[in-house]
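Dissemination and training. As part of the outreach component of the grant, students in the summer workshop were shown how a complex can be specified as a set of sequence lines and then modelled as a single object. The example used during the hands-on session is reproduced here so that future cohorts can follow it. Participants entered these lines:
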Amino acid sequence: MDCKTVMGPVAVPLYADDPAATAIDFMREKRSGLVPVIERDGTFVGLLSGDRMMHFMIPSAVHMMKGKKRASYLQESAEELQARLDRLRGKTIRDLIDPNVTVAYEDTPFIDAMMLISGRQFVVPVLDKEHKLVGAISFFTLLHYLGDEQKKAAEGEGGAA
Amino acid sequence: MTGHEVSQVIFGLDPLWLSTGILIITYAVLLSERIHRTVVALTGAGMVVISGLLNQDKAIAGIDFNTIALLTGMMMIVAVIRTTGFFEYIAIWSAKKVKADPRGVLIVLSIVTAVFSAFLDNLTTVLLVVPIALLLAEKLEVTPYPYLLSQILASNIGGTATLIGDPPNILIGSATGLTFTDFLFHMGPVVAVVLFVSVIVFHVLWGKELVAEEKHRARIMGFREQDSITDKKLLVQSLVVLVAVILGFIIGEHYHIRPGTTAMTGAAVLLLVIGLTDTMEGQTERLQEVFSEVEWSALFFFMGLFVVVGGVEHAGLLEILGAKLMAATGNEPVATTFATLWLSAIVSAAVDNIPFVATMIPLVESMETAIGGAEALEPVWWALALGACFGGNGSLIGAAANVMVAGLGERAGYPISFGKFLALGLPMMLGSMVIATGYMYLRHFL
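and obtained this result:
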């Protein structure tokens, strides 16, 4: 079984050269935590995710505090968070995407995509040979696929009966 | 089983030339910064043994395990303390004590870093204090450059004060038997003066541009420093052990307990104490965490370096150089001391001071008879330590802490160029050396 068999359709992608404000508004309106980003010619560039955006919403100095999982002493106001979000809006989407996303191709064995997801990459983009985004795989696409297969099997048995 | 005995140098080469060649090549590759310094030192060490300059037993005997144990033990203790949030607590508490005035913050953070650098290693100190300094600058909406630059200078100045503050001091202390107390009393006063003068210079240089609005200062005053402490019990345990280790350095010298033993025992006791209430699984996890924080590459760098320097020492090169230096200074203690002081500072500004000091130690040792004995040689040791430590401020590549702070600044979007640092660091280094020269003269030769 390959990725093409299981993959689901992709949500509307964003363009890498668009302002980050477009992505922020898109994520807020659609309540989407993960958006694929492509070039104008459809070539896949990376993913823009909620956790990646949250990384930028935390003061950069906090990220430098090696091994620290808490910064409870830091009391930030809504005004400060808004100011940081506004600074992000001035960037391009390309500045914010996670470029280190592992992708699969249509003929990649599905087990490899499953291993990537179990390794905490929640969505695996699926590309064609020209590196164009053609679909994506997550745990939910697997559920849908198995559900569809069960339905087909039941229909086949019903038809035969 | 004994090591592989090599009785003769490979191809009958002259040991003096061969060891000199290996040392020069090692230095040249270290200077090029193209290959990791640990790989360079280990390769050099391998060449020393394989070429027959030293056999394996002699090479291992040449490694100063007191230095290695001291560094490892302190790294392990610091690895535990840093998880408690103690450094954040002190930095924020200090900033609030000066009412979050940016100029006051600049001064107190410089003092905090200098003090921590004296009693812990200065790399760890800047790694923990600089992010807080950047955070405070961001909240105050002032330029972070004064904080970054002052942190570099303060860490090198503070590290000069004690036996454990900076690797050159560890090396010198271990080789000479000069104790923690000796370092504190000889280096402490001059470090205090240099730090005081530096803080005044920081204020003069940056005081005018470091002005923050009241609402921005209120952000800092709203920080809850007590919330930075992640584990109070662990904090108390680790601070008690740290204080005991420092006392152990002072008391141990009277009982011939070397600092390496004290530091390693302290690390073991700390792990024992915090492990008493933990499961075996928890203890294993903690041990792995602590070991992962030990800078193994630095330790192996030291080991390789000891062997390379052991090669030239064994071949007699350093004795020859020592004799030449003594001839140049006319066997005169004053001239030898000041020549060593300024040479160390200039070389340490340009290259890593660790290999330089490691090479200088046997060279200085070889001068003992010519200069008039161990007592007459003592000022030369202090000169070497002062020059090597203060010299680290002379350029951005002068000390590992400088490179570390520059890296943190770059990550935060505030790169420090070589020239920018040189414009500040070199005059500051020269100023500190003038003070050190005056101090050495007053203390040892007046």
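Chain A has one domain: 3-160. Students were then asked to discuss how this feature might be tested experimentally.
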